[in-house]
Design a protein that fits this description.
The chain is of the alpha/beta class. The chain contains nine helices and 17 strands. The model has no long low-confidence stretch (mean pLDDT 95).
Length: 316
């Protein structure tokens, strides 16, 4: 089958590489336009573009999918199927209807749960014990299309967004390879989603990043892992932002009680902070205007001590 691949971030690039390495290279790639990045605002290509160019794959970067020049070129490519992985734009009706076998998408959740922009983060944040990838045929809705395959993976108490991201990207590639084989052989069976069981994974907002120590230590551990390595969950110490990059639930009761956000202990093992329920052992932090460091180094530099307070609103 002649395919066109649509994607943008590193997640998509991992999938594209796997498809190419397994003999499923697309005839063209569609990705976002280059964007200014860094202090010099130098135009930067998306991870998908960088890989496609290295492979000599034609790369299209329309500002709008309705652009007549892009429309003409996409139609001229005559794709049998369009593969979409985290492209970042809603596909117009003509794109959905163009390929013989439609547009198939790898979505990083077990649909109909966590439709939308941030399924990986929300699943970790909610303390789910399992997640996965769903291969579906796209329609006009947001992740509402009929499903073909679901590949699952367990979530552990040590999983972060980084580890889940990489695992689900590999699962996406595997699922798409299976899907292409089924479609090509005429054995694909698409099944309607149970829309009554659907949930939506909203885009991560600034308020999702704030650590509220009135919540349980378990909930905060999930929040911190869900936002690592970006954008990180944060609180403040002495009015300055403090991103928490590694933390675990303290096993057993703390040696002493404290109000939420109170430092119970600080030393070479990290910082123990009281929560609404239980306590959190912080082992790595990212202080404002400094490098990422161990909590022990931060304790030494900031002279943090028992009785100090970490708060969830900057400047209070």
């Amino acid at each position: 089958m002649r395919s066109v691949f649509m994607g943008t971030p590193e997640f998509s690039q991992i999938v594209l590489r796997a498809l190419c390495e397994r003999g499923r290279a697309p005839v063209a790639v569609v990705t976002r336009a280059d964007k200014p990045a860094g202090r010099g605002n130098t135009l930067s290509a998306s991870p998908v573009k960088k890989y496609a160019v290295s492979r000599g794959i034609e790369t299209l970067q329309p500002e709008k999918l309705s652009d007549p020049v892009f429309t003409e070129r996409l139609c001229a490519l005559s794709p049998d199927i369009i593969i979409v992985v985290a492209y970042g734009k809603i596909l117009p009706d003509y794109v959905l209807k163009l390929p013989k076998y439609g547009c198939i998408n790898a979505h990083a959740s077990i649909l109909p749960e966590y439709r939308g922009a941030a399924p990986m983060q929300r699943a970790i944040m909610d303390g789910k014990r399992e997640t996965g990838v769903t291969i579906m045929k796209m329609d006009k809705g947001v992740d509402t299309g009929d499903t073909l395959l679901t590949l699952k993976t367990p979530l552990s108490d040590t999983d972060t967004l980084e580890s889940v991201h990489d695992r689900l990207a590999e699962l996406s590639a595997e699922g798409l390879l299976q899907a292409l084989e089924l479609i090509e052989c005429g054995r694909a069976v698409f099944v309607s989603q149970d829309h009554e069981k659907a949930s939506y994974a909203e885009k991560i907002r600034r308020e999702d990043e704030v650590i509220d120590f009135r919540r349980s230590a378990s909930e905060l551990s999930c929040q911190i892992r869900a936002l690592t390595p970006y954008p990180f969950a944060f609180c403040s110490f002495n009015g300055r932002s403090l991103k928490i990059t590694k933390a675990t639930v303290l096993e057993g009761p703390p040696e002493k009680e404290g109000i939420p956000g109170e430092v119970l202990a600080a030393g070479k093992n990290g910082i123990i902070v009281a929560c609404g329920s239980g306590a959190l052992l912080i082992t790595e932090v990212f202080p404002e205007n400094k490098r990422r460091m161990s909590a022990a180094d931060f304790v030494n530099g900031a002279r943090i001590k028992p009785g100090d307070k970490l708060v969830g609103v900057i400047g209070t």
